[in-house]
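Hi Q.,

Before the meeting this afternoon, I wanted you to have the fe (ii) ion prediction in hand. No need to reply - just skim if you have a minute. The sequence and ligand are here:
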Amino acid sequence: MPEAYNLGAASSKIIKKKLKMSPKIETIEVETISKDGKIALIALLNKAIQVEYGLILNYPRIIEYLVGYEKINDELFISDLERLGEDSTRHLGWVVDIIKSLGGEPVWQMGITERLFDARKLGTQQLEKEKMAVELYKEVVHVARMNVVKEKVLEFSGKLIKTDRNGLQEEVREASEVIDRLERIEIDEIRHVKTVHDMLATYDFLMGGES
Ligand SMILES: [Fe+2]
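Predicted structure with the ligand bound:
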């Protein structure tokens, strides 16, 4: 057989292989968040950035003050404070990710950083912020649930692509994925309120003060 024929057969094999490997594009119907829902969620989640940011900044400050000035070395107490800070940092990352996935821009606004003269006062303010976070995420979850719509999208390599009336394409996320993550944050925040509340009582006990 002439060499050219062999080459032809080989290259057609490659083409077939490439076609087989190319990802399938399918039109499917999925539940996503409506346009109005996205706008409302982006605004609320940008408020959440500010709340989480305030919490993140203050937990390490409280730890430093308690260990450095008040000589509190209760490991469980300090590790609880560290975990609160870590959770807030993780939440902030998720919130930024969700805002971007909804087509929004995260707005970084720093709240007022209180001067640290009184760890208990700052702890009480953290408790108020955690309560604020619970209310905020409750609203966020409610708004997300109320704005679920069915949309036809293209599924391509595991991505969902929506085409608008002007032919512009954007990647969308399934509503359940967004709502599951937001509910997870809400559950964490409810736990945080209880943790900070209990920690204030422990602090009073350790300091031999009010209970
Ligand atoms: Fe929190």
